[in-house]
Amino acid sequence: MYIxxxxxxxxxxxxxxxxxxxxxxxxxxxxxxAKLALKLxxxxxxxxxxxxxxxxxxxxxxxxxxxxTGCTFGKGNFFFLDHGKMAFTFGSRASGQGVRLLLKQxxxxxxEREQQLATKIGSKNCTAEEQQEYKKLFEQRGEKTxxxxxxxxxxxxxxxxxxxxxxxxxxxxxxxxxxxxMVMETKLSPQGRHLVCKGCQQE
Length: 203
Ligand SMILES: [Zn+2]
Ligand SMILES: [Zn+2]
Hints:
Bound molecules: zinc ion
Structural class: alpha+beta
CATH class of the largest domain: Alpha Beta
Radius of gyration: 22 Å
Largest sheet: 5 strands, mixed
Strand order of the largest sheet: 2-1-3-4-5
């Protein structure tokens, strides 16, 4: 993993690491995506629901995006689509504009020589020279990628009018007809003579 010192020393980056628990490439990709999106939209971190984020994966990167954008699971302005793509859409409620960032295909592609060496290292069947060569190639590729800034990581698609999801619902709670636990009214469904929670429905 290659992450330049210039990024690692940033307070914003450190905040992501504190939240996420460890340094990794995923959290770094999320950091870069959030920084770039806020710049492109001309927005600041959301105090309330000024921004929305739609992530198309549930990997490490999502934690950095929550820290930097203020779009969080708890606030209800952080939406997850289970598409298995390294794609992130950021939207502004004020301007109605959005931007979708997709991790560039070349970021996934490891050059052949590097792959060969990685396999050899994995099988513990390599010389000290090969290990050195691998380290050098890996770092050079990392340096080159990071030199272009966040723009070098993502294909950017501007969205002139974003269809914004509704604001997080605030509804009263009622007791479930079976277990008696309080449930958001909109999450209760009729079953026989009762309105029941999802937990009781499954039984
Ligand atoms: Zn991670
Ligand atoms: Zn119940």
